[in-house]
Design brief:
Structural class of chain A: alpha+beta
InterPro entries (chain B): FAD/NAD-bd_sf, FAD/NAD-binding_dom, Ferredox_Rdtase, Ferredox_Rdtase_adrenod
Helix content of chain B: 25-40%
Number of helices of chain A: 5
Radius of gyration of chain A: 18 Å
Subcellular location (chain B): Mitochondrion
Distance between the termini of chain A: 62 Å
Strand order of the largest sheet of chain B: 6-14-7-8-10-9
Catalytic activity (chain B): 2 reduced [adrenodoxin] + NADP(+) + H(+) = 2 oxidized [adrenodoxin] + NADPH
Structural class of chain B: alpha/beta
Strand order of the largest sheet of chain A: 2-1-5-3-4
Shape of chain A: globular
Number of domains of chain B: 2
Strand content of chain A: 5-15%
Number of strands of chain B: 18
CATH superfamily of the largest domain in chain B: FAD/NAD(P)-binding domain
Oligomer: heterodimer
Number of helices of chain B: 17
Mean pLDDT of chain B: 95
Helix content of chain A: 10-25%
Pfam families (chain B): Pyr_redox_2
CATH class of the largest domain in chain B: Alpha Beta
Order of helices and strands of chain A: HHEEHEHHEE
CATH topology of the largest domain in chain B: FAD/NAD(P)-binding domain
GO molecular function, one term (chain B): oxidoreductase activity
């Protein structure tokens, strides 16, 4: 337990060393037993759930250090990253489940400015490319905004006619 | 099923991407009138915003898919008609954007020294049709009509230090012109107030922080606004707060560079926002040929928020300037007589991207919704249209039992008309040449602005 928590907070080299030590000592911890060392990815597991645009829940085993945008894309979720995580668009906009939202570092000014541009902005909106998984995000839900038909950028509601 | 997309900008590519991803059998052909793809991502996004252009990588991946083909150098409506495309494909999606601009419609608009923002942006971004613009930058004061992001882009390009612009993909020719520019003051003039500005906070902040330039905002324009925005939606609130803060900032709080410039007795460049001024006439020089100023009607606002209307009060003001850029909106044009077009709104009448009254014809992007919005807006909109196409394929509204020839049919039509399409790998040769030319100058690319040169390069 202690080994995997230490592994979670250290840098990648530290994580590898500690995981190796943990395996040697107890065989437990986040990495999974035995197995070819070459296959083993970095960091302890963080289980999260993506909710896609149809409402379908997609559980995903992430790792500490994973970028949420890239994680979603690797698992086939339709989360675009038009500017490739360079803080120049808002296409990776997601909603973060409430308890986990507050555990994230506050968005910097650049992210806030871009969130202003995201359709259907909510209190729990964040840019996926700015979220990095840590153990505090275990169980987090990242919901992709539903794109309703005939939506408008600023939430304008068309008058019925 | 064979799908044709007309236009290779973000709308075209995002529509293609979505259809290809959600239909295993669809073949999507993307047509483009220029030899080179990507539309406004290449020709509209400012040179100093390279990250926004990263989306080109996603589009390139789409273009390289086996079930996707790119055909450049084809002007739909001239080289091939929409009717001919509808014969060759099961579905045709019009994503050709907005190639024109709204006009002020005031006397003097055609004087030398007055340009549309669209043409000016096209000029510094290497759009072939604007390569000979030769804007006159020999005056001190420029007036931009409009309070949108395009207006801010132009102000920023006019006032940016050369050292920053030199490293971008701005054309060499524009760089040379800007190096000789005398423009040191840019006014952005809008007929409504601070609460109606259309630009966004990221771009405003960038302008405020521009090295060597100081913002000039009149605190009087912002009295009482703090209160008015108390309950405004977050984006409007933050944007207005930033303007208020900037307007109330004392000279002593300016950036180090600006102070340094001031102490060297080199007046920093400056830019400002003027509100509730509606241009009535562009005033000519004594010889009647060039602009010397603009007469503007002072307005008051009726209503509030986004729907506030500017009404002339009867008072006027004249502003001296030698360069006028009208940045009041892009505008789509009708493509082909067989396609319904709403001239008043400048869009193709549609419902969720299905063109009204024409089954099998769709539209996405600015020609569908109007010429506003950023990448995410167009992306969502394109996915919406793609959904309509996919639904229609699924429920049989589009009859795919009859096979269509796709480019097989169009190709022979084009050949008979002497039109040579440019393939995606042809574009990649042009791309490589541009990158190589830019390298020597430390630029990401040196854009080729002559379509003939592009065609020669690929052996056409």
């Amino acid at each position: 337990m202690a080994a995997s928590m230490a592994a979670a907070s250290g840098g990648s080299v530290t994580r590898r060393l500690l995981r190796g030590a943990a395996r040697g000592l107890s065989g437990g911890g986040g990495g999974g037993g035995g197995g070819a060392a070459a296959e083993e990815p970095e960091g302890a597991v963080v289980n999260v759930v993506f909710v896609d645009r149809t409402g379908r829940h997609v559980p995903v085993r992430g790792r500490v250090g994973d970028n949420v945008l890239h994680l979603a894309q690797r698992h086939g979720l339709e989360l675009e990253g038009a500017c490739e995580a360079s803080l120049a668009c808002s296409t990776c906009h997601v909603y973060v489940s409430t308890p986990h939202l507050d555990r994230l570092p506050a968005p910097d000014e650049r992210e806030e400015d871009l969130l202003d541009q995201a359709p259907q902005l909510q209190e729990n909106s964040r840019l996926g490319c700015q979220i990095v998984l840590g153990p505090e995000l275990e169980g987090a839900h990242f919901t992709l905004p539903r794109v309703t038909r005939n939506f408008y950028v600023d939430g304008h509601v068309p008058k019925p006619h | 099923p064979r799908v044709c997309v007309v236009g290779s900008g973000p709308a075209g590519f995002y529509t293609a991407q979505h259809i290809l991803k959600h239909h295993n059998g669809a073949q999507v052909d993307i047509y483009e009138k220029l030899p080179v793809p990507f539309g406004l991502v290449r020709f509209g996004v400012a040179p100093d915003h390279p990250e926004v252009k990263n989306v080109i990588n996603a589009f390139t991946q789409t273009a390289r898919l086996e079930r996707c083909a790119y055909y450049g150098n084809i002007t739909v409506g001239r080289d091939v008609t929409v009717a001919e495309l509808r014969q060759a494909y099961h579905a045709v999606v019009l994503s050709y954007g907005a190639e024109d601009n709204r006009v002020l419609g005031i006397p003097g608009e055609n004087l030398s020294g007055v340009y549309s923002a669209r043409a000016f942006v096209g000029w510094y971004n290497g759009l072939p049709e604007n390569r000979d613009l030769k804007p006159d930058l020999s005056c001190e004061t420029a007036l931009i009509v409009g309070h949108g992001n395009v207006a801010l882009d132009i102000a920023r390009i006019l006032l940016s230090p050369l050292s920053l612009l030199r490293k971008t993909d701005i054309t060499d020719c524009s760089l040379a012109a800007l190096a000789c520019s005398k423009v040191k003051r840019v006014w952005l003039v809008g007929r409504r107030g601070p609460l109606q500005v259309a630009f966004t906070i990221k771009e405003l902040r960038e302008m405020i922080n521009l090295p060597g330039a100081r913002p000039v905002l009149n605190p009087a324009d912002f009295t009482g606004l703090e209160n008015a925005i108390k309950d405004a939606p977050r984006p409007r609130k933050r944007l207005t707060e930033l303007m208020i803060k900037t307007a109330l900032e004392k000279p002593g709080e300016k950036t180090v560079e600006v102070q340094a410039a001031a102490t060297q007795a080199v007046a920093p460049r400056e830019w400002g926002l003027k509100f509730q001024r509606s241009p009535q006439e562009v005033l000519p020089t004594a010889d009647g040929r060039r602009v010397r100023g603009v007469r503007m009607a002072l307005t008051h606002l009726e209503g509030s928020g986004d729907s506030a209307k500017a009404v002339p009060t009867g008072d006027v003001e004249e502003l001296e300037c030698g360069l006028v850029l009208s940045s009041i909106g892009y505008r789509s044009l009708p493509l082909d007589p067989s396609v319904p077009f709403n001239t008043q709104r400048g869009i193709i009448p549609n419902s969720s991207g299905r063109v009204e009254g024409v089954p099998g014809l769709y539209c996405s992007g600015w020609v569908k919704r109007g010429p506003t919005g950023v990448i995410i807006t167009t992306m969502n909109d394109s996915f919406d249209t793609a959904q309509s196409v996919l639904e229609d394929l699924q429920v049989g509204v589009l009859d795919v039992s009859a096979s269509r020839e796709g480019f097989g049919a169009v190709g022979s039509i084009l050949r008979s008309r002497g039109v040579h399409p440019v393939s995606f790998s042809d574009w990649e040769k042009i791309d490589a040449a541009e990158v190589a030319r830019g390298k020597a100058a430390g630029k990401p690319r040196e854009k080729i602005v002559d379509p003939q040169e592009m065609l020669q390069l690929i052996g056409h």
